[in-house]
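Sequence only, no structure available. Ideas?
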Amino acid sequence: MSVLSLRLPDSLHRAAKDLAHRENASINQVIATALAEKISALLTEDYFKKRAERGSKNKFLKALESVPSIPPDKGDEL
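Reply:
I predicted one. Tokens follow.
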């Protein structure tokens, strides 16, 4: 585990402290969780961008051709 000295605006520090108290957690846990969520979101965005670059509209349309054409179930109509 690493130690990180972090400067926060007073308003963010207060918000983190209030949230930690409300969630019965430490400020460290709140900040670590928030950072983990942000990193996950950014990495997911990168992952989908890379996948999209490898995508092929023609392959997608060909795959759709194998889907059977059946009427929707009752209640599924738009």
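The two ends are 52 Å apart (CA to CA).
Hope that gets you unstuck.
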